[in-house]
Amino acid sequence: MKRLKANIFPFIIALSALSVSASAAFYSVSGLSKLFAGASFEVIIMAGSLEVAKLVIASLLYQYWDTINKYLRTYLTIAAVVLVLITSMGIYGFLSAAYQETYQKLTINQNKIEFLENKAKFYEDDVNRYDEELERISNNISTLSNAKATSIQVRDTSALGGLRSTVSTAELRLAQQRIQVEEENRKEVNKNRTVAADSLQTYKLQILELQNASDTVGELGPLQYLSGLTGTPMDKIINILLLIIIFVFDPLAISLVVAANFAFDQANKKNLYGEFEDDIEPDLWDDLDEEEEDINDIEVEAEEVKPEDWKVVDENDTEIKEKPKPVKIIQKGPSTHRVLFNDGQERKVKKDDNIIRYL
Question: What is the pTM of this model?
Fold first, then answer.
């Protein structure tokens, strides 16, 4: 049970590593299959096997770094780095293709808006022209409405002096006729203005609808906001964002795989006798109560040692003197440690060796 509890967190790390690796592999394989669309199925098989091999290489290098052949170790390290770059390239291709698809929709949307704005501008000019015409007609009608009858003198033999004063209504009648014509003109202009205003309103509503289209505004709205806020083109912003994602994505998957190996190694340590440390029973002498028999009172049958069983060893003996003794551990590794001996030399010693355990 203790060992099971100790392995819970390493298991969580391993599960996280697999989830990140699986998603990275999916995006990478999808991106590479689009890049080589002529043989997409074959590329999926190849890229999938390389993704699995990359995780195996990471675990292998961690477990056998000190024991594996250095040439093979160098090649596997280079291969892992190259696979990370390939995966990152596939992820970049996948995400950039998704962005280009959405950006293309935005471009089409903007072109439609520009076309509708030109149409709206045409009808807006018509409305302004009709407004000016209506204003001119209104001024004419106002002027003609101020026309009055004119006082004139006409010849009349019956009147004194042969002239008689009277009123001329000819100008007044002419003004009334012109007012009727202007009223007809105003009705026609009002009719044309209404048609132009309705068309202008229709185009403006279409422009507003396109500007608030949910499929493009919801996806590229944050990028448009950042572009307007920083004055940076959207293409440059999305490129920086994609580079940040791929810089973290696949290297994080490899790091979590190595971390899972390390966590399992720490949770399942073994002692000198190959036993799990958490399975060792506590010392039986620790269970003795104070009232129980003292350990010094226990009788033990002593074995008589005869003189011939002893061997006197001279401290200056060449065999013992020439055998180097460990001083300290310089570097720890997954399976072997680098140890400094009293003769000044450094040697690799397995981590389960007695020399390591009793330093």
Answer: 0.51
